[in-house]
């Protein structure tokens, strides 16, 4: 065990975190297993290369395609080994942090919350997240919360004003009764009666206050406008006097609570965290770079207001579920031995709203436990020089884009001269002192919880955005292999590439789920006979890989049903989101298309929610991605029926020998697509597949089948 890197001699301070590999036996077994699978993959490649059909026929082309797909799958599988080869777990020692540092020695923290649309991201949800991070178990005078509102909405601003008042009750309440989670929405949704340590009177009073807040905010939001009385009472609204729209407005910055002012105290007389509303300047003709542009502006604005050495970023729905997350992160940053090298602490993306056996495979336990986590919170520190970090550029899409926005934006989004303090904006351009290392931390009590999409259309769009972003990075000079060369280990480079190359799985997968099935109805064999020796590596690789994947899911706490659903989602995403992501990436390289950011909606209507709870896929309005999805599903259904009946009628079961694996593949694809057939043929509700999708799919599928049977 490497206990945080203690190297000889007596340390004045003990390590604040440990890096452990507790499952040595399991790791050894995994490596053995991986060795056998790799041998199987090599044999498959060998078989393909040595059994090439004679030239001049369709079969040869189909065969070469199989070879290409299998080469890719094999290579990609090797990449995925990297995240499993030597798994490590991090543990923090917050008690030691408390022994090593007095509260007032701890660094201050700037917390950035991003929101972009009051309709898709209801203000009440946004301020609950803001309140949850204001109420961190941390000295309030060291907390500075910035809300970036890309909609420049006065509704969101109003809600934040309300939150700034509510916070004065909420924060002391949270501290006194050790409330968890500290998002009022989440807390009151989970706790319906006063817990033992709480005086019932105080608890109900708090609940009443929260209810009033909700009613006030929601009624203003529903009406869509700010009542005159409020408008004249709150000074900040004057910035909305002229006509402004979400895409065209000057910069707006309002300090709602100034932590430096004496009067900024809560009901117990304690200091309050600084709270700032910011809507950066937007003009229709200027690229604003979406969330990345916001972070960029947030860095500038915060550097003239609080300029904390630590930055934390959450989405507006990602509330803090663990009031100690900042202290956990500090255990990494302030560790005497290794803290200097750590630039980021990343938490996995966990969801609050997912049900058991979620049909979309949203509870990505395996991804969180096994792979590198999807970023949701990034904390950065440049402790060595005490200045603001130059944000690392290759970890995730949004962070990378900060670099783009930076160069692209000539104008200051905020006139910084107006602000007290004279810290140089140049601080932000400081280059990193050394390598930027990132640690991934997945604590027992989840650090953050957000809203997962519960509609297939939304999920596919979201994944398209992610994979496109990852691919964009992987093919740029910020790719882990270029930028990381010599700085991070090969294993880590490969680990990043697992997500980095998600998109490239699209073509091989699409090939694998169409061509073998089409060849099946045509009697063209693409796999070894069942009795042949070459059959064994194919069978072994498939069975071993899927059993291992199932075992891994079960071990990480997913159910078998969730595993199966997740497999379906992989298939669907690979053939739709990833495919379009790759195509759009190519289009962008050719200069025909631009980056976009389609927001995931954080509210869903009640009927849709019911369907989600019942495990029914929600399709919604027409999307070209559904056409691909249903075409693949219908094609395989047709191939299965035609192929099997043809052989049973003409040649008896014996004819299967050479087509056995193709038949199995086809049946599996049909099995995994059952919810799609249900949505196509049986269901008739609003969430089901639009009939236009079915029609277009049939138009695609029929000619393919006819063409392939044509002799
Ligand atoms: O123009 C924009 C668009 C989005 N956002 C914010 O970006 C965040 C993420 O958007 P969301 O629609 O929730 O996307 P998700 O796919 O759910 O977010 C995941 O994927 C994003 C990258 O695509 C990461 O930035 C997020 O941290 C990660 O949770 C939200 O707070 C938005 O308000 C902006 O501030 N400005
Ligand atoms: Mn989100």
UniProtKB/TrEMBL annotation:
GO terms for cellular component: endomembrane system; membrane. UDP-alpha-D-glucose binds at residues 121, 150. The keyword DNA-binding does not apply. The chain crosses the membrane at residues 30-49, 61-83, 622-647, 659-680, 692-710. It is found in: Endomembrane system. One of its GO terms (biological process) is plant-type cell wall organization or biogenesis. It holds the Pfam family Cellulose_synt. It comes from the Eukaryota. GO terms for molecular function: cellulose synthase (UDP-forming) activity. InterPro entries: Cellulose_synth (IPR005150), Nucleotide-diphossugar_trans (IPR029044). Its main location: membrane. Keywords: Cell wall biogenesis/degradation, Glycosyltransferase, Membrane, Transferase, Transmembrane, Transmembrane helix. It is a multi-pass membrane protein. Mn(2+) binds at residues 291, 315. This is Glycosyltransferase 2-like domain-containing protein. It comes from Leersia perrieri. The lineage of its organism: Eukaryota, Viridiplantae, Streptophyta, Embryophyta, Tracheophyta.
């Amino acid at each position: 065990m490497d206990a945080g890197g203690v190297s000889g001699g007596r340390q004045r301070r003990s390590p604040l975190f440990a890096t452990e590999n507790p499952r040595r036996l399991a790791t050894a077994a995994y490596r053995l297993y991986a060795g056998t699978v790799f041998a199987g993959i090599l044999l498959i490649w060998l078989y393909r290369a040595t059994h090439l059909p004679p030239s001049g026929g369709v079969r040869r082309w189909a065969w070469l395609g199989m070879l290409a797909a299998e080469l890719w799958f094999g290579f990609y599988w090797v990449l995925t080994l990297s995240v499993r080869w030597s798994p490590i777990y991090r543990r923090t020692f917050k008690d030691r942090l408390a022994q090593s540092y007095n509260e007032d020695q701890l660094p201050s923290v700037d917390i950035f919350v991003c929101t972009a649309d009051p309709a898709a991201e209801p203000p009440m949800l946004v301020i609950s997240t803001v309140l949850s991070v204001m109420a961190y178990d941390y000295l309030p005078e060291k907390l500075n919360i910035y809300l970036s509102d890309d909609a420049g909405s006065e509704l969101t601003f109003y809600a934040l004003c309300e939150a700034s008042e509510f916070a004065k009750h909420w924060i002391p309440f949270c501290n006194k009764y050790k409330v968890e989670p500290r998002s009022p929405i989440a807390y009151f949704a989970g706790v319906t009666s006063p817990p033992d340590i709480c005086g019932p009177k105080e608890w109900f009073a708090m609940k009443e206050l929260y209810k009033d807040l909700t009613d006030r905010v929601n009624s203003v939001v529903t009406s869509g406008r700010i009542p005159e009385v409020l408008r004249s009472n709150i000074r900040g609204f004057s910035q909305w006097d002229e006509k402004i729209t979400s895409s065209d407005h000057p910069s707006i910055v309002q300090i709602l609570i100034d932590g430096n002012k004496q009067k900024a105290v809560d009901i117990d007389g304690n200091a309050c965290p600084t709270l700032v509303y910011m809507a950066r300047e937007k003009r229709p003709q200027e690229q604003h770079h979406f969330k990345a542009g916001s972070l960029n502006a947030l860095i500038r604005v915060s550097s003239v207001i609080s300029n904390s050495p630590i930055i934390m970023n959450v989405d507006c729905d990602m509330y803090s579920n663990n009031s100690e997350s900042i202290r956990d992160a500090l255990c990494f940053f302030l560790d005497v031995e290794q803290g200097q090298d750590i630039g980021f602490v990343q938490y996995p993306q966990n969801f609050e709203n997912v049900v058991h056996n979620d049909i979309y495979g949203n509870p990505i336990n395996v991804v969180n436990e096994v792979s590198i986590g999807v970023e949701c919170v990034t904390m950065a520190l440049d402790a060595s020089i005490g200045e603001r970090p130059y944000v690392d550029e290759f970890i995730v899409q949004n962070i990378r884009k900060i670099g783009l926005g930076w160069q692209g934006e000539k104008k200051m989004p905020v006139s910084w001269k107006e602000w007290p303090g004279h810290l140089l904006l140049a601080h932000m351009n400081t280059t990193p002192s050394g390598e930027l290392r990132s640690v991934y931390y997945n604590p027992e009590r989840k650090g953050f919880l957000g809203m997962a999409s519960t509609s297939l259309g939304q999920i596919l769009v979201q994944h398209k955005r992610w994979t496109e972003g990852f691919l964009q990075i992987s093919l740029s000079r910020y790719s882990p292999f270029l930028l990381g060369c010599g700085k991070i280990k090969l294993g880590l480079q490969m680990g990043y590439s697992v997500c980095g190359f998600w998109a490239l799985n699209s073509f091989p997968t699409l090939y694998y789920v169409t061509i073998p099935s089409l060849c099946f109805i045509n009697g063209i064999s693409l796999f070894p006979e069942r009795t042949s020796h070459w059959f064994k590596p194919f069978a072994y690789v498939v069975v071993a890989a899927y059993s291992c994947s199932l075992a891994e899911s079960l071990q990480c706490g997913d159910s078998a049903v969730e595993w199966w659903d997740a497999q379906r989602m992989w298939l669907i995403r690979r053939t739709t989101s990833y495919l379009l992501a790759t195509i759009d990436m190519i289009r962008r390289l050719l200069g025909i298309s631009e980056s976009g950011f389609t927001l995931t909606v954080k509210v869903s209507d009640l009927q849709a929610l019911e369907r989600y709870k019942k495990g029914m896929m929600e399709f919604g309005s027409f999307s070209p991605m559904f056409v691909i999805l249903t075409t693949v599903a219908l094609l395989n259904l047709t191939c299965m029926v035609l192929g099997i009946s043809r052989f049973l009628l003409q040649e008896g079961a014996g004819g299967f020998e050479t087509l056995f694996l193709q038949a199995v593949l086809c049946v599996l694809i049909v099995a995994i697509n059952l919810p799609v057939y249900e949505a196509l043929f049986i269901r008739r509700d609003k969430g089901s597949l639009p009939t236009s999708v079915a029609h277009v799919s049939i138009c695609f599928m029929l000619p393919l089948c006819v063409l392939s049977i044509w002799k």
